[in-house]
Amino acid sequence: MSNLQTESQQELEETMETSEPNVTAETERTLDHVSYFGYSLLRDVLIPELLGDETNTISYWAGKHLARKYPLNTMDEIVAFFKAASWGTLTLAKKDKYSLELELSGDVVSKRFQQETCSFHLESGFVAEQIQRQNNCLTEAYLTHKEKNGKVLISVQWDRKDILPTETRAERYKK
Question: Where is this region: Disordered (predicted)?
């Protein structure tokens, strides 16, 4: 094994030791600097241009798809994923028997509000699918923007009567 491979492996191991629990090595790999401009160019300019009127719907379902690729077992893991993905700071604002409210904030969220086409449906879909997986019942998430505060409220609701069949759940999370 070359010195470069050894150094990279050691850096990765050190990063994983200091990271949040159960966040995969893949989510922890970072560049020295990722500009906000590059991030915003993709999320808030190019994607809306390509998807047009369907941006919010497709982004929501893309978020659900990402959640299936990166299944997380706890709310703490979801919070850590948001941090690793540079989606902002996710905090639990309120929790009831069949719903919860999450607040998404941080510099990246505040800056994204400056874009005319900013959408947080990717994040909303991701949360909906993770909670659906954790609760094993049909779950949806809704957005409320709080532009004055630079925050987004994600309201998540589920119905315990609408339980996912075991075989469907197993097939769904197989990949």
Answer: 1-27
Report yes or no on 31 lying in a domain.
Answer: no
Give the pLDDT band (50/70/90) at residue 12.
Answer: very low
Predicted local confidence at residue 119, as pLDDT = 92
Residue 160 belongs to domain spanning: 57-175
Cα–Cα dist 131/32, whole Å: 32
Tens of pLDDT, residue by residue over 110-155, are 999 888 888 999 999 999 999 999 999 999 999 987 766 889 999 9
Q: Which amino acid is at 140?
A: E
Which residues are CB-neighbours of 71 under 8 A, at least 6 positions away? 130, 133, 173
Q: pTM of the entire structure? A: 0.76
Question: Any idea what the CATH number is for the domain that residue 121 is in?
Answer: 3.30.1380.20
Q: Following DSSP, what letter does each residue of 77-114 receive, concatenated?
A: HHHHHHHHTTS-EEEEEEE-SSEEEEEEESHHHHHHTT
Alpha helical stretches, state H, the chain: 3-18, 25-28, 36-40, 47-51, 55-69, 75-84, 107-112, 121-135, 166-172
Is 74 in a helix, a strand, or coil?
coil
Residues in the chain: 175
